[in-house]
Amino acid sequence: MEQTAQASFIGRGIEVPFRIDHTGSVALTAGTQSIERAMAMILATAPGERVMRPDFGCAIWDLLFEPINDNTLGLMAEAVREAMARWEPRIDVDDVDVRPVDAQSGAVEIAVAYTVRATNDRRNLVFPFYTIPGEGDDEPMAELG
Fold this sequence. Notes:
Elements: H1 3-10, E1 12-14, E2 28-30, H2 31-44, H3 70-87, E3 91-102, E4 107-116, E5 121-130, H4 138-144
Antiparallel strand pairs: 1-2, 3-4, 4-5
């Protein structure tokens, strides 16, 4: 589908991070790029972080200091599903896969498979998330790895 036709179905938005484009205007995103930027912004925002919209964001940040185990990974996946259902109405989430990447850094990879409602286009977004590893957290990671 042509980019301009797709943008009219999906919409346009202000580019995040906020910047000025080459014409001196506020930079905008359109189409699926707009959706991916919005999804990344939702995942990168902790609830309570925005003063005028305190509920906005994803509850994965509540799990920042939790050990990386099956329970925490399941809670992260559910938090992502709930945040996308609430804050991104242009998509249907098909699957959320959360898996540990590195025991030393506390890295977790969140893969969101979704379908754009307006175009029925299936897409994926991978979001890196870093927990704060505690002492002795290497054991649960070794079991999952």
